[in-house]
Amino acid sequence: MDLRTACPLTAHEALERAALLAPDVEAVVTAEERITYAALASEVARIRGALAAAGIGRGDHVGLCLGNGPRWVALFVAIGSVGALTVPVNTRYTAGEVAHTLAHAKVSTLFAADRVLRTDFCAMLREIGIGADGTGTCSELPDLKRIVVCGDNVPDWATAWPDFLAEAEAEAEAEAETETETDADVEAGTGAGRETPATGTPDDVLLVQYTSGTTSRPKGVLLTQRSMCADAFFSGARLGLRPGDRFHSARPFFHVAGSTLSVLSSIQHATTLVTMPRFEPAEALRLLETERCTHFSGNDTIALMLLNHPDRAHRTLHLRGAWVAASPTIVRRVIDELGATECVAGYGLSEASPNVAQSCWWEDDQVRASGAMCVEPGVEVRIRAADGTRDCEPGEPGSILVRGWNVMQGYLDAPEATAAAIDTDGWLTTGDVGTLDATGRLHFVGRTKDIIRVGGENVAPADVEDTLHGHPHVRQAVVVGVPDERLVEVPFAFVVLTEPGTTEEELLTWARTRMAAFKVPRHLRIVDGFEDIGMTASSKVPKNRLASHARTLLAQRDHEVPA
Fold it and tell me: Is the dihedral of CA 283, 285, 289, 294 positive or negative?
């Protein structure tokens, strides 16, 4: 498949097209800021000139430690336009995790907010050791040469954002006064007073995306302009985004679901991206109403928080569609209760840019709510049997393998890990379980690491959660596996109720009539929420932490002394 005929394959070209097509359409909107596509393109050109004047160019690794907003988007596109790589820094990281990311990625320039929500990043950088000698460097980060701080609290050892731009403009003016234009300069657009040209290409690595690292140190996934821009285009097309639509997404831009499926999808389709620094359901519902959003993006937790929030009854929504990574029951509720009749479901992972498959807004809602997804154009998917010797039959679950233009270049400075993930024929082992039906549609079953093996039977937590979400008094259910002496492993369900009154035994009795006996949770605990466990930046419940909590609860129960 020739992607060049489908869409722009660099972020700056996509933005230039959006600015020509819809210059007055708002590109990015937050509670505090608004910027049109014409203004965003102008800002990207301005930043590109500043980057070039600062000596930042092809192959340089540039860190972004900023909250969601126009500046993140402008820097991201500008960095790619000079052939440099963006290293997004998770704004919820600890000082040690930030240091690891900057060191491993060999970041040479860091753009950081002075503060995001309650986190003081200047204090965090001091904790790492930056500024100890009065400069913006430290021995633990030998590659880091420059820190630019965006905000009012700028340490002496950092450059303030306005100064970074002003220094570049002053340098350009000085060069313009002494420069003699040649015919070649005029032809190339590099003469005095002319805009710095974009040099990024589709084959350049655009992003170093660090994985979640729940079982090991995070790895840096290398994603190209081509893979991210094409993935964004196809996702937005299947979601039904059009110029002038308004797409709400609180997905963190430092995650690929934010950078690809929110930022780049919006740019590819000249859609307004309405965002917020962190998902909060009451504020999200307010924005959905007041900004007249036509679409939203979220995972199962985000969708449930919107569906079950008491403010929803008092909000007038204008939704037409949604992109959700959620079970069929939740997709059905989004369609029926939020009015997002064109809601689609998607499956992906960081190593695949991220979308592998997605349903399409024009399909029958029964198909979309069933979880059946079309594989991305030009991408191949196989389902490999557990023994690794054959491909599974239609409907038979197995390991999802992916090959095509969306697959990562590899892991940064990790050839062994790359070889383990991508075989010599280019097939990426996702670590996930799914099925292909007779029509070639992909059905996601679950993450391999989350699958619960109950007495020889494989149980997908998402399957159990989907059933529990069908109970009228269940607000949210999260299922993990815990050890069992007889069955090796069994499901443990944590349930948040819509209102008090339903007992744990009543829920289990209800579940037993709706799922196979081996799937029924052996343990069920009603909880008020998951704040004590701690939500991820993407508003997910971290299952590794929840499983550890479940094991602790069982150990405490086993050691209780009867009264």
Answer: positive
